Every structure is written in C-alpha cells, then in structure tokens.
Amino acid sequence: MNFLNNKKYLPLLGAILIGTLLGLLISTLTFKNNKNLPDIKSSENIISSSFSDAVKKASPAVVNIYSNVLINNRRSQLPFSERFNSIFGLNRSRIESSLGSGVIFYSNGYILTNQHVIGDRSVGITVELSNGRKEEAKIVGIDKGTDLAVLKINQTEELSSIEIANSDNLEIGDIVLAIGNPYGLGQSVSMGIVSATGREFNNPYSDYIQTDAAINKGNSGGALVDTSGRLVGINTLIRSSSGGSEGIGFAIPSVRVVGIINDLIQFGEVRRGWLGFDIDRVALATSNKLLISYIHLNGPANEANLRVGDVIIEINEQESSYSLLFKEFARSKPGILIKLKVLRDTEIIELILLTVLATT
User: Fold this and answer.
1) Containing structural domain, residue 111
2) Does the annotation count 287 as an active-site position?
3) Which pLDDT score, from 0 to 100, does residue 314 have?
4) What is the pLDDT of residue 45?
C-alpha cells in the first residue's frame, strides 16, 4: 500500500510537518536570545570565587604585635600586709604579655595599632613582619580617645605599606576582609560585609564601621580592607557576651585614621577642634532635634552668639542630623570654620563658629 497516496493519513502528516517547523523556529529564537545573556563568570553582580588578590596585596602591610605590659599588684589593706607581701615578693610589679595586630602606614616604618594592644605601661614591643622577621618598636604617640597608637621600627629598606581607600564610600552590604593575628595563631583572614556605618558605641571620637567579619582577640589593630585590598578601617573591638566573635565587630574608618596618625607623628598627640556647646540628649532621643542645652563660657559657641534653646537646622549648608554633627565634630581641627543655621523661637539665624584647640 502506498502510504503517501492514502488520503486518510494526510492530516497526520500535515500536523507532523507543522510541529517540526514550529520546533525549529522556537529553537532558532532561543539560540539568538541566549547570545545576549551575560557571561555568568564575568558579571559584576556575581560574588568573586576568591579574594586572594586582595589578600596578597594587603597582607604584607599587616604585622603581628607582641607587647610586654607592666602591671602593678594591688596592695592589701590588712595589718602587716605590706611587710608580709614584701617578704614573698607580692608587692612587686609583674609583666603580662599582650598580642595584637598592626598596619604599616608608611614605608619608612610607621605602624598603626590600637592603644589597648600595647597598654599604658609597655616595657617592650616586638613587631613581626609578614616575612617572619621581628623588630623592636618604639611608641611615637598615643590617642586614648580613639584607642589608636603609632609605633616606629627602624628600617634600612622600604616596607610594604597599605593602600588607603575612602571609607566614606562604603555602603551597607559591601564585602570586607579582616586581616590580623587572632589568638596569636599567625596572620589570618576572615570575610564579612559592612553591617552598618557611623556607630558611636560610647566613643564620641569614632564613628565605627560595623562588620560581621570574624574579629577575635589578637585582631585588634589589624586591617579591614575592601575587595581591592585597600584599607577601609582599623579593627578595634567587638560586641560579645562570650568574649569571642559573635558577628558584631567595629573598625575605625580610614578617613578618621589618616588625620590621627599624621597628628601623632607630627605632635605626639591628636589636636582636635572644640565647639563649646552641648546637645540636649532627651530632645535628640524623643524628637530628633539638635537642641542646645549648654553653652561653655569663652568657647566658640559663646563667641558666635549661639544660645541655649536654639535648634540647629543646618550644618555647613547641609540638613542637620546628629550623625552629621558628630562627623563634623569628630573630624574638626583647630581653626576650622563651621557654619550653623539655627531656629531661635520663630527666627532663622546663620552663625559661623571658629573651632579652637580642645584642652581635654
């Protein structure tokens, strides 16, 4: 029987032919559209599979710091205790070891770390470079306000210094890497994101970066870097109920650090500007208003005719907020002009304050 001449099979053959043509058409269109899809590996929206290049770039500038700190024993108030303790040597000071991390800021041997790493009465500081070489360091300057200290090691050759990024450009969700010496294990790296910025955390001088990158004992003074290996912060403290990392770490932003290290190298101390007024904390908490609660005599605010009861509505021609005021205050140097626009009763008044050197 001739299959093609049998008319009852013609509708079936037609359906098969149409289905085949439609399949070819759909396949062709799909192939063309797939050509326009981005390469998954090259997409900027996909997380890199490795940050080894960033670590290789930054890690030579991160050092381990070992410090011997002099601790005085507490004396008993009991009768004859002084004589008893002196016989057995209990009144003698003892030396405790402290460990932490540091960052080489300048290739001629200036290193930044946390003040609490070296303590108040350090009797010896050793810096271990990334290549394992150890050098004795001396203290150049300390700033207890920000818990930062500058050390200096003598070098005949240039050291690898860290590249600095502008921490003001950080956004919540950015990936960061913490490099340091946790628990004295040696240089280690952990990864996390920026959880928040502008955290005060009971320190009026440091608007901390908050991160969930693991920061443990020994990481203090180490580097927080971006995915390009550039410094965005100095790892300083953690919020923890256990003493170990619980995903809440704080780093001092690089933009704050630069001014501090330069002051410490030049003057041995940080020279800050002072504005001479206080903000009402209750008004700030309840209505988010920058209400002036106190004016210090002979201060810049008094000289500029700022008054108790004024409400700051603009700071340097920007809409006022506590974070902005905090930022301007924390970064101000003596001799800087700060423009304020305040609401006094129903009148808007513009004032200019000239910061002076803070004495405390």
Assistant:
1) 58-152
2) no
3) 93
4) 47
